[in-house]
Structures are given as C-alpha cells and as structure tokens.
Amino acid sequence: MKTWPLLLLSLILTLNFSPAVANKNSSPTQINFTQQLPTTGNLILGVYTDGELGQFGNQINRQSEGGLQHAIKTTEFKAEIKSSQLITAPKATGLAQILLIGLGEKSAEQSNLVWQELGGYAAQKAAKTFSQIPSMAFDVNHTNTTAQVAFGAQLGSYAFTKYYTDKKRQTIQKNITIVTADEAATTSHYKQELSSVAEAIWYTRDVSNEPANVIYPASFVARWRQYLKDIKNITIKVFDEADMLDINMGAIYGVGRGSQRPPRMMVVEYMNGKKGDAPIVLVGKGITFDTGGISLKNPPNMWNMKYDMSGAASALGTLYAVAGRGAKVNVVAIAALAENMPSANAQRPGDIVTSMSGKTIQIRSTDAEGRLVLADGNYYGDTKYNPALLINLATLTGSASRATGKDYAPMFTRHDELVPQFIEMGKLTGDQLWHMPLNDNHFKAIEADIADVMNSGPDAPGASAGAAFLATFVRETTPWVHLDIAGVAWGSNAIPFKDSPGSTAFGIRLLNAYIKAHHENKP
Ligand code: BES
Ligand code: MN
Ligand code: ZN
Questions:
Q1: Which site from 78, 165, 255, 428 is most exposed, i.e. has the minimal number of CB atoms within 10 Å?
Q2: Do 262 and 256 touch, CB atoms closer than 8 A?
Q3: Based on the number of CB atoms within 10 Å of its own CB, is 290 exposed (0-12), middle (13-18) or buried (19 or more)?
Q4: pTM of the predicted model as reported, rounded to 2 decimal places
C-alpha cells in the first residue's frame, strides 16, 4: 500500500492548520538617532509652555519666518505637559504635518521617568495620528534626556498584533528616529544603559501576552532560550519532571502533575561579576495557566490566568536587561513553571507533598499553587547559590491586587532595612511598591495539623500569609524580598508609555535599576 501520499497530506495539513504557533513574533522597534531634522513627511515636535520652542522648534520657526510660532498661536495650544496638537507644517519646512507635544514649563527640571513618559505619550499619540510614527524632535540637548525620551518611545510603540489577520491592524513600527544634538553620544548612552531594558520589557510582554495554548512550560523555556541566545556569559539549566523527582521537588511536581504539559524549572545564570561573589537570585512564579486545579476557579475571569507566569517572565526579563548591558554582576533567574489543571491525575485538596527542603505541605486549596512551585524554586535558589539577595516575583494572591490595585505591588520582607531602598527605586522607575506587614501571626496561620505547613487555610487567605509561606522556604539569614504582582502584571487600561492592553512586564525597570545601584561594580 502506498502510504506516502497520506503522509504528505497529513504533513500539509499540519503545516497549514497548526494553530497560532505559526504566527510570527514581532521584534522590538529599533531606535535611531540623527542630528538632522527631516525635510519631508511628518514630524513630532516637543514644545514648552509660554511660547518656548526649544532648540529644534526655534530652527523650524526661523526657517519658516515665524510660521511655527504663528500656527501655535492660532490653535491656542498651551503646551501643558502630556498634551498634543496637530498642525499643518509651515510650507518652508517641506514637512506635511507636525504633531506638537507639550513639555510643560522649560524651567521645571523633569526626572528621567517624566521624559520617558513624554516619549511614550508622543509615540502613542503619533501611532493613532499617522500610519507610522515619524521622527521625533524634543528640545533636549542633553544626551541622557534624549535617550530617556527614546526609551519611552520604544516602549510606547509596543503592540501585540500577531494574531490579527487584517493587515491594517497589524501595523508594525520597524524603527523610530529621534533627533538629537549629539548623535554619537546619545547612541552610545542608549546602547549602554537602556536598549537592553527596552528589549527585555518587549520580550517579557510578548511572552506574557501569549495564550496558554502557545506558552506552556516547555515552550516558555524554548522562547527564552531563543531570546537569550546572543547574550554573553549565560548558562541555562532546565529540570524536567524526572529531574524534579530525582531531587525531591515534590511541591512543583504536585502542581504540574494534573497537566498534559509537564512542569519545568528553568535556571539561567549570568555570572559576570567577581568570581565567587554571591549572586542576586530572582525566583518567578511561572504558572502558564491557572485553572485553580481541583479547587476550580470561577469561569468569567479565568482567561486572565494565562498571565499567571508573569513573575517568571519578569525574572528572566530582568536578567536579560542586566546581561544585555554587560553589567559586572552575578544574577540568577529561576522560572518555576507548571500548568495548574484539574484531571484524573491532578493533586487533591488534603494531599500532602514533600518539598525539596524536606518540609511537608498539606494542600488545602489546589488554587494556592504559586506558593508551591516557589517553595521548591526558593529552596533551590537559596541553598544552591547562597544569594546576596533573593527576590520573588509572583502573581500570588487576589488579596494583593484588591489591596493596592494597579498602582503598587505589595512588598514583603523579613529584612526591613531593604524597604526604603526598594520603595525609592520604585518611585524612580515607575514600578511602584507598597510595604506590607509580615509577622508571626502570618506564619502561625499556615501551620498545619498533620503536616509541617499548609498552603492555605481559614486564617490564611491573604497576601501576607502567602508571603509567610514563601519565606518558610528561604533561610532567615538570606536577605529576601517578595513582590506580589497580582494586581500590576497586566491591565486593560493605559499604563504610562505602555498604553497597550495586556502585560506590563512589571519589575524589570525596578530590579534592573536596583541591581545597578546596589550590586554592580563592587570593588
Ligand atoms: N494566580 C492566583 C492569584 C491571582 C488572582 C492573581 C487574581 C491575579 C488575579 C493564585 O494562584 C490564587 O489562586 N490565589 C488564591 C489563593 C488562595 C486560594 C489562598 C487567591 O488569591 O484567591
Ligand atoms: Mn491559583
Ligand atoms: Zn496562580
């Protein structure tokens, strides 16, 4: 019997009808700097209040013999910060239209974050106004400030469009040109400090936005291998189910066993600091889909649980940002990956599992699964690396998102001296934190009657009890911080310079800056 036509047919069918996986991922918008104002097409121009046009605005105004000033007067544009006005360009400029962006008062010294927000605001306005984002000229002859605007613009141009089949909705911005007073200096500053952070955020958002039929533990690993392949000083280790059983990771194994898509623990080392220097270890919750398991969730919002791997994605994204800068520091990112599904093989409420630490855990709710995968991730990270600092990133509790909403991620620690540093860094970078309590009562609330601890319980529904559970698997002497990003990891509304629904990649800006300020270039 001839089977090859059948084989060929099935091959063609799989190629054509394989789901979403075939859609191409976008790549980050490229940023170019130039010293030349464009002489055709459109332009984005930043101007100050009180008729202050700034360097590039003045250039255009002179060229058009006051035409720009006149056009602004006619429209009564006030140039208040983050406002905009579209005008027809004065003839002499050769340009078509100018999108004016208000920069506020010239005398007001703005922070990096505000310049980033202005760049992002401009990119988003422009994307809605024109088919492509045109060149952008702000009156910023300081290298750093121009680079901050570019960073905001690069992130502001993000869109997750790969599943649109309508070409018009797919509009991809390949690059954005930023006009600067010093092309070489701005380019090198951008490459050195900011481009890897923007790329990291881009990739993290892309992975987190994917549905759970595309991103599951093994494909999460494959995707990050791909992103990290050109970065130096990286080693990747991946534990599969058999490895987990070998080293007694009973907690993550238990969460993963209900799924057809087996769990993984991905460990990425970036060792570019002093040899033997204790690394910073980032451990992220990587639940690629959280149905709740046998303790099944309510259907209406369940689809959001494709984002339940955001902590793991941000841990890897932070490592990408730091490693991409070639920073002199040791960082390890651990992604604790599993899909939480109900099935005949799923774990049950009441089951008792033994974690890698040897501590036994009674499962009270299979929906408190994040803390279970992190129990093994934390124990492994703590004991294997003796970290200088261990940080958890996790969409851990609904309680966290109810407490501080979209504005702050609750922060928990047993090392209170770390609090001001983290809060301060949150304010500077825009990934804002709020310090929450963690005391003996929270640890009492998770003591179990017939096992060492339980993962939930009548007195342990909150974010603090979740934090206490995580802390149970980290030595008290290890500086440890837990960020519960359940409320901030994704959103449907505008987020400063990331105005696109979905993942926010929370934590990357914060932790990249934190590591730079407190751990790099140690003598
Ligand atoms: N992934 C959820 C937490 C979550 C809920 C994140 C809503 C973002 C939005 C987590 O696994 C969970 O289900 N937590 C439970 C814990 C409880 C059973 C102790 C919760 O918060 O209700
Ligand atoms: Mn859950
Ligand atoms: Zn979860």
A1: 165
A2: yes
A3: buried
A4: 0.94
